[in-house]
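User: My advisor asked me to double-check a structure prediction for Tubulin-specific chaperone B before group meeting. I don't want to rely on an old file, so could you generate it fresh from this sequence?
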Amino acid sequence: MTEVYALEISSNVSEFPYEKKYPSSLTLGELKKKLELVVGATSENIHIELHDAEGKFVSSLTDAAKSLKELGVKDGMRLHAVDVSGQNAELQDDSMVEKYTISDDQYDKREDSVRAWKKKLLAENAAGHQQLTPERGDVNEEIAKKIKVGDRCEVRVRGAVPRRGVVAFVGETKFKEGPWVGVTYDEPVGKNDGIVAGVRYFQCGDKHGGFVRPVDVATGDFPPFPIVGDMDEI
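Assistant: Sure, here is a fresh prediction for Tubulin-specific chaperone B from the sequence you gave:
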């Protein structure tokens, strides 16, 4: 069975990257064809750079006949597409773009912001003389109460592409203190099969399981990512 890579796609004509899934057998030439509408250039004028999950440059991909796997691409990496024709240079000049800005004071007054939510939790914990520590997890404990086994979810860990699956475990573990969420991923993008340090917390296929903090989990209507699609799926 052909491997499927969940990759982050970025370009020099857009500041917003997105995630796509491609089979490892896809050649660089075929990939460039799929990115023509994204970059706004023909495949001959698209240069691809490979970056790791941490954002570090790995290499420039030049052999159009080689597959993603042969080029060293791995799940979770980022592909940066650059239009070398120069025809889209004006799109990169943001000096003429009117930007939406908000002052720190204005943001501080908003009640629907992340900052306001954190302040609320801090105030609640201060009233109870509790210390708020993300790792120990008063915030994680509050979020964990709203996560149920069987929920569809999306895992959003900083520095990694989003992953989707089903919540398989919520609670304390023996490998590290604090609340954890065990997830059965739709694709083999995890690190285990539900077992950590010899203890089984849930059942799933090899590399389909993973554990993350509740703060990194969003539950809701998150269907599996499409494997390969065109622009109408972005």
